[in-house]
Amino acid sequence: MLDKTQIAKRIAREVKNGQYINLGIGIPTLVANYIPENLEVVLQSENGLLGIGPFPTEDKIDPDLINAGKQTITMAKGSALFNSADSFAMIRGGHVHLTILGAMEVSEKGDISNWKIPGKMVKGMGGAMDLVASADNIIVAMQHCSKDGQSKLLKECSLPITGINCVKKIVTDLAVLDVLPEGGFKLLERAPGVSVEEIVSKTEGRLLVEGEIPEMVFD
Amino acid sequence: MITKTVKNAAEAVRDVVSDSVLMFGGFGLCGIPENCIQALLQKDLTGLTCISNNAGVDDFGIGLMLKKRMVKKMISSYVGENAEFERQLLSGELEVDLIPQGTLAERIRAGGAGIPAFFTPAGVGTEVAEGKEMREFDGKMYLMEKGLRADFAFVKAWKGDTAGNLIFKGTARNFNPMMATAGKITIAEVEELVPAGSLDPNHIHTPGIYVQRIFQGGDYEKRIEQRTVSKE
After folding, report:
1. Is the ipTM above a cut-off of 0.90?
2. B-chain residues near A66 (CB < 8 A)
3. Domains, chain A, ranges and CATH?
4. Backbone angles phi, psi at A120, to 5 degrees
């Protein structure tokens, strides 16, 4: 099984040179730490910054400079600042190449649920609905099953939907999977020590398994 | 030259009445009009509709207006950091309209730009689309969202001049420039107010035409929600 850091490391391998990338809160934020140094990418923060830098040292903290998770940050070389309408014009207009975000459930059609649990306090969707409605390439970081063992890779999402037909790839604690354009999950890789049988048994949605499924390797 | 300067926050908010629709710039607590919120708290107001990306925290920002029961309805994209908000919402004292963040920004931009409605893909296939007009363009579905305006828009800028021109700093810009365009009366508070002519026109983010009143605010707390530091 992968821990959160390993999920982030595995997703970082999907990043390509020259991409503009939006990282969601949680595991997706960790991805920034593992993007290979030879790649030049620009991280977008939907509250109005292209070029998120590292967290500041104590003497460099600026309350006027935060990310979408409201954490203090710095600006990378070549940054640009803008307003929220421009920020979502970049997102909606398809200018951001890659969106990485967390999910509570994903369906075999690529629908995603990640904003609301019935009976619990609704905090709001923030920018998630805009991001998933427009991004061409969405990678989801999530746990394969809920705490009580229920699959979160489903035929149909049971929780309120954030966006439809949008997820392209999923990295869970057990596996890497593609969401096929015609529907269904395709198993690509398995976590160290996890069998294909275990992944099959823990995936409720239609799962395609073809040939040998390689085990992920981490240094 | 039209001079828009008012003495202070109290004078700027003098004619805000109960049941008004208000916009507040800011993302989290970053770039919020702290002085105007304090001045509104001194007034006896109820039934307000507040349009703001977030709802502050329990003891700062719009959270203080919620605590004083001034707000009837919040229109926001994310309201997660506020226990009093949760209590009022669950007890039915407070209405909330949750809107995708990009849709909220664009609705305000459209409102200020005289665009009554527009189509966006955000929310298609979700409960956000319920009751909304849908249309297909080039094989993809979109839903119609309407422009938003307010009786008063409260914005916070870094620098401003007596003609109402504004310059923002860092990510404190966020919703402020669009809200400035969408208020029937837009009130700008700035950290530094300078005479018209002292700011380089090339650097103005919000032209003064959108701003009716401006004053230099004081005692900015600029509270940080998530103080995150690196060691080296």
Report:
1. yes
2. 27-28, 30, 171, 224-226
3. 4-208 (3.40.1080.10)
4. -105, 160
